[in-house]
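Table S5 (text form). Sequence records supplied for joint modeling of the two-component complex.
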Amino acid sequence: MNRNARLYLLTVSVVGLGIFFILHFGDRLPAPPSPFSTESVARSSLNVTAVGDSSFFASLESSLRQNGANPLSRLFLQLLIIVSASCAVGWTFTRFGQPAVVGEMIAGILLGPSLFGLLAPNIFQFVFAASSLDALRLFSQIGVCLFMFAVGMELDVSQLRHKAQTAIVVSHSSIVIPYFLGVALALFLYSYLAQPGATFSAFALFMGISMNMTAFPVLVRILRDRGLFKSPLGSTATACAAVDDVTAWSILAFVVAIARATSATSMGGATFRLGLVLLFVALMLFVLKPNLPRWLGKSALDRPEPDKIVLAVVVGVVLLSALCTELIGIHALFGAFLAGIIMPNIGGFRDNLVVRVENLSSVLLLPVFFAFTGLRTQIGLLNQAQDWAICLVIIGVATLGKLEGSALAGRLTGTKWRESLQLGALMNTRGLMELIALNIGYDLAILSQRIFTMLVLMALFTTVMTGPLLTLFEKRPRVARV
Amino acid sequence: MKRTAQLYLLIVSVVGLGILFILQVGSKLPAPAPALSTQSTAQHTQQITYASDSSVLGSVKSGLWQNASNPLSRLFLQLMVIISASFLIGRLFTRCGQPAVVGEMLAGILLGPSLFGLLAPNIFQFIFAASSLDALRLFSQIGVCLFMFAVGMELDVSQLRHKARAAVVVGHGSIVIPYFLGVTLALFLYSRLAQPGASFIAFALFMGISMSITAFPVLVRILQDRGILKTPLGNTATMCAAVGDVTAWSILAFVVAIARASSVGGAAVSLGLVLIFVALMLFVLKRNLPAWLRPALERDEPGKGALAVVLGVVLVSALSTELIGIQALFGAFLAGIIMPTAGGFRQKLVVRVESLSSVLLLPLFFAFIGLRTQIGLLNGGRDWLICFGIIGVATVGKLGGTALTARLVGMQWRESFQLGALMNTRGLMELIALNIGYELNILSLRIFTMLVVMALVTTVMTGPLLTLFGKRRLMPSTMSEAVAP
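The corresponding C-alpha cell record, covering 967 residues in total, follows.
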C-alpha cells in the first residue's frame, strides 16, 4: 500500500512538472494565423462577450449576468421557477381536497402577466424574455404531445366494447348538448369577442368544442382519490369519459381542418384535408395496429424491461404519427394520441411505457405547458363588469350543458337520478384538456385573447367545482329535478 | 337496447340540425371589429402565412410545405431522421459485435455535412435549416444534461471507498500519462490547428483532456455484453473508469474555468465558486436529501412530489454551474452523484429519466456533433497524417499508461493490457468534452473533426483489442509494439 502511494505521488508529480514545463515553453509559440474561412464569422458573436471591466466585483457580476442570459441557463431558470411553483401550488390544493392538477393550472396563470408580471414586471421580463418564448413553446408542445401519447395509452379501447352502448349514448349526448349550447352562445359573442379575421363557423365550432371537453386523466384521478374507481359509477364514468375523449378529439381535429381551410378560402382544401385525416387514421388503425406487435417482437413485449431498441421503435412511431398530423394541418398532438391508442396492450407493455414517458413529461414538461398558457392568459383584460358577466355566463352555460346533458342522458338510459347527477358532475371536469384545445384555437387565430382568458377561467372553475358537486350529490339521496 | 338506439339517433339528429341552423344564421352576423389592442400584432404573423392559391392540389401542396416548416414539425422531422438513422446504423454495428453507441455516433456524422450534406444538399438544407439549429442545440444540451445526471447516478461513490486505493492509482495514472502526451502534442499542433484567439495554455489543457477521457457508460456496456462485468477484471475496470470519470470531469471543469476567464483573478474566482458549490452539494445537500425525500424512498413508486424535488435539484445544480461559467452538465453530473442510493431509489429514477432522454434527446446531440464535423476539411494527406498521429498518441497514452500503472500496482500483464484497452474507450464522453472546447473557441473546426474521428476509432478499437489481449497468454513487455496503430 505504501509502495502504491509512493508510486502515485511519483507519477503525478513527475508528469505534473512535465505539463507545467510544456505550458511554460509553449507560451512562446507563434499564435495560430488569422482566420481563412467562414467559420470565424459564424462564431464571432461568441467572441465579443468578454467585456473589459475594471472593478473585480463588477466583472464578476457582469459575467454572471451574461451567463444567466444565454438560452440554456434561461431555460433552466424558467423550468426551475415553473416546476417549483406548480409543485408548491399543486401541493397546497391537494390539502384542500382538490386534484393537484388544478393547483398546477393556477400556478401557470399566476406566473403569467396576471400576477407575476403585474407585481414584478422587471423580473418577469428577465425570466420570460420574449426571445426565449420560442424555445419554451416548442418545449411545451412536446410535453403536450408526450402527455397525449400517455393519455391514449391509458384508454383501453378493447375493454370498452363490452359496455359500449350505454357509454356511447351518454357520452355522445353529453357532447352534443353542450356543443349546441356553445354554438348558440357563439351567436351572441361573435361580434364582440372573436379574433378579427375569424369566420363565424370556425368561432362557433370552437366555442362548441370548448364547452364539451372532458379531462379523462383528471376524472380518473378524482375517482381514484375518492375510492370510486372500481364502483359501478366509476366504471360508467370512465367508459363515458373515454368515449367522450375520443369523440371530442375527433371533432376537434375535424374543426381544425375546417377552420384552417376556410382561411385559405377553398372548400376543396377542407374536404381534401379531411380525406387525408381519414386515410391516416385508417392506416394507423388497420395497418399499423395489427402489425406493431410483430415488429416489436414477441420477446420484447414479454420482457419486464423494454430495451432501447423497442423504445426507439415506439418513439419513432409517435414521432411519425405526430409529424403526419402536423403535416396534414391538424395539430401534432392528435397523432401522438392516436399512437398511444394503437400501442399493443400485452403483458403490461403499456405500463412499462407509461412509467418511462409519463413521469418526466408530467413533472417537467406539462407545467411548462401550463405556464405557457398562463403567459397568454391576461386576467387584466377583463376590466369591465360586462366582461365578467360574460365570463360568468360562459361558466354557467358550460356547467349546465355538460352536467345536465350527461345527467339527462344517464337518466334516460336507466341510471338513477343521484348517480346520473354524479356522472354529470364528473363529466364537467375540463381540466387541462380544455387548455390544450383553447391553445389550438388561439394559435389558429380564432379566439381573441379576451375570450381565451374567459375560457381558461371557465376551465379552472368547472374543474374546481367537480369535487364539491360530487360530494353534494352524494349526500342527498333525492335531488329535486332542478 | 332498441330504445337506446332510437334515443341516440333522436338526440344527435335534433341537436345536429340545431347546430347547422345556428351556423347558417350566424354567418350573417357582423364580423368582429378590427383589433383595438396590441394583441393583433402578436397574432399577425400567423395569419399572413396563407398564400392564396388557385388550384386545390396547389393549395394542398403549399399547405403541406408550410406545415412542414413550422418549428414543431421541423423538430419532429429532424428527430425522425436522426432516430431512424441512429437506429439502423446502431443495429448494423451491434451485428458486427460493436456497441450500439458507435453506430449512433457514426450516424450523427453521416447526417452532417460530411455525407448527407454532400450527397443531397437541398434536402439537407431543408431538414437542418439554419433557423432550426438553435432549438436543436438547446434540446441536445438538455439531453446531455439528463444523460450526465444518469451517468452520475450510475457511479456509486460510496462503494468505491472499500477498495479505492488501487483504483485511484490506476485511474489517475491512466489520466496523467495521456494528459502529458496530449499537452506535448499541443506543442506541435498549436500554431497550425488552434482556433485563432485561443491561448496556448487553454489549447494544451484541452488537448490533454481529450486524450484522457474514458466513457464510463460505454465501458460498462461492453463489459456487460461480454459477460465479464462481475469478474475481477470487470470490477477493477469499472472502478478505475469511475475514478477516471470523476477526475477527468473535475479537470475539465477546472480547464473551462481557466479558459473562460479573461484574467487570472477571474479564473481564481470561478474556481473558488466551483469549490464552494461542490462543497455545498457534497456536504450540505447530500446529507439532507434523504430526509427531504424520506417518504418517497420507502415507497415502491416515487411520487410526483419526489420526482419534482429531484428535478428541482438537478435544475438548481445545472443552473448554478452554468452561472459560474462552467457548463450546466457538470451540475447535472454532480446532482446525479449526490442522489440517495437507499432502496433502489436511483434505479427508479434512472428508469424514469434515462430511457426517454437516451432515446429521444441524446441522438440529437450526436447529430448536432455531426453537423459540426466536416470530414471534408481534412483534405490534405498531411491532415490525415496528423489525424493518425493523434489517434496513435491517444491510444499509446491511454492504453499504455493504464497498462503500465496497472502492472506496477501488481496486476498481470495480460489483464493490465485488457484494462488499458477498456480505458481507451472514449465514446460519447469525448464528444461532450470536444463540443465544450469548440464552443469555448479553443478548438478549430479541423482539429475538432480530427478529434471526433479519434474518438470514433478508439471506441471501435476496444472490442477487437480486448479479444486480442484476451487470447494471447503472454505479451511482450514493450507496449509500443503492441499498440502501434
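Note: Chain A touches chain B through 129 residues (CB under 8 Å).
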